[in-house]
Amino acid sequence: MAIRSGSKAQAFFRIPEGVTDTFRQKILELRPSVKTDYLKQEFFSKFVSADTDSADLRRGRAIAKWLAQEQVNEATNTRLLTLHDGYQILPHVTWSRFRSFCQSTIQSILGDVPTVDALIGSFSGGASTSRPRTQSYPSSKYLGKAHVTSDCLALFTDLCGEMPGWLGVADFRPTIVRGNVMFTVPKKTDIDRVACKEPDINMFLQKGLGGFIRKGLRKAGINLNDQSINRSFAREGAITGDLATMDLSSASDSVTTVLVSEFLPVCWYTTLDSVRSRVTIIDGVEHRNEMFSSMGNGFTFELESLLFFAIAKAVTYFTGTRGVVSVYGDDLIIPSSSFDDLEWVLGVLGFRCNRSKSFSDGPFRESCGGHYHDGLDITPFYVKGPLENVVDVIHAANSLREWALIPEFGILNPEVEDIWLWLKAMVPKQFWGGGDTSYKYQLVSLDAPNKRIYEETLTHATGLGGYFHWLNTTWDRDQTTEGVKTSSRTENLKNKFRSRPVRDCAVPRLPALFLSELS
């Protein structure tokens, strides 16, 4: 049966009412075990629907939390400004010595001065202060309206002639704005996550600087492109107890302006300061930031990783502790014996350890989405919204299958087989036979594949903006073996689906099977 957009397609994709509640109840009725009990605790913790707290309530809580953190940041800025050099931040370690070590570590990674290349950034498809997300495809940002803060415009104007992709932009007259604009996105059942839409040109330079910091960290042994590194260390810590995992509360929102000025080389600080948003607009009201940058800024993640790496290295150095130091944003891996010292130092610098997600003793560790108990992977999956159509059911079934893997025996947990078969029965047979559990448009099963689902799309030419985007994307390529296509963009049509025959109709080779699939 072919699937087309329209009422017939929606009827075909519709599933019975109550599936979400039934699925939840079936999971809660599973027999107790370490892995199952943890799944029961976590799998609905991020669920959002019309029956949970309202969007306005979740948003209000998120903004109130953000503003409360800004009050803490103000106190932190004052404390760091008045902290005398002789203050002992660790036993027999003065603030002056500690700060100097962090400065040297960061200087060795960044150098003294940002190069021109460090400022050549890029545009993403995210929303900006001038455009909603639906109109924020990268090529559009080279043409038409653009926003920028005044300090950033001065820097950008000086560098514009050096930047591929901007040489041919005629009549470029961006609008000066005060700063970024706050918005929220769903995070958990009871509270949203705060982020900020940056001015277009600020974001372009921020992403260049963030990319440069990322490259520098990689040379220092910190690869922000690979979360599996921290996950493997978390598993090791769960087995040996020698490594701790630390998570910080509101970490990126706790990086204060004074801390950055104390630790970074002067030219780096002034450059980052000129392209950040010093002001955030919250529902039309201006707020002058005590934090250095918020989520949404193009270098926030890399900057916080750099700072936490330097701080953790300093703590282990001054306490004479040997062992792994690894960071991914605010997910930190350190020797367990350094946990208390690092928590104390971070507290002085304005950060708060999230004790509910940090572990230095016992059999459990968590980092970068990996959850381990005595080395056993007990990572849960999450149901973030109601199961309303076949695509949602496929995603739930594939997530359950991934969770059910027992790698030691190469089988899938037979206890959840009936739940998986129940979900499978709601999926039309033509969409069985997928091989990738992360793909939600085809059910992973030991069946010959026939078709897969795909969302209908529209293709749009990007015109001159696409050419400028291509220049910017390819300026530093040292080889041309792969083409870079920027001449068109694709727009997904939400909730409009079609089916497409699969090219390879062979039964997929799966790493593990349910008992019913072995017969």
Averaged pLDDT: 89
Strand order of the largest sheet: 6-5-8-9
Distance between the termini: 28 Å
Number of domains: 2
**Residue share in helix:** 25-40%
How many individual helices? 16
Strand percentage, roughly? Answer: 15-25%
What is the fold's blueprint, element by element?
Elements: H1 7-13, H2 19-28, H3 34-42, H4 55-82, E1 88-90, E2 93-94, H5 95-110, E3 147-148, H6 150-159, E4 175-176, E5 180-186, E6 192-197, H7 200-219, H8 228-240, E7 243-249, H9 257-263, H10 266-275, E8 279-282, E9 285-288, H11 300-318, E10 326-328, E11 331-335, H12 339-348, E12 352-353, E13 364-367, E14 370-373, E15 376-377, H13 390-403, E16 405-406, E17 411-412, H14 417-424, E18 432-434, E19 443-444, E20 451-461, H15 463-474, E21 488-501, H16 515-518
Parallel strand pairs: 3-4, 5-8, 18-19
Antiparallel strand pairs: 1-2, 5-6, 7-11, 7-12, 8-9, 10-11, 13-14, 14-15, 16-17, 20-21
Helix pairs in contact: 5-11, 7-11, 11-12, 13-14
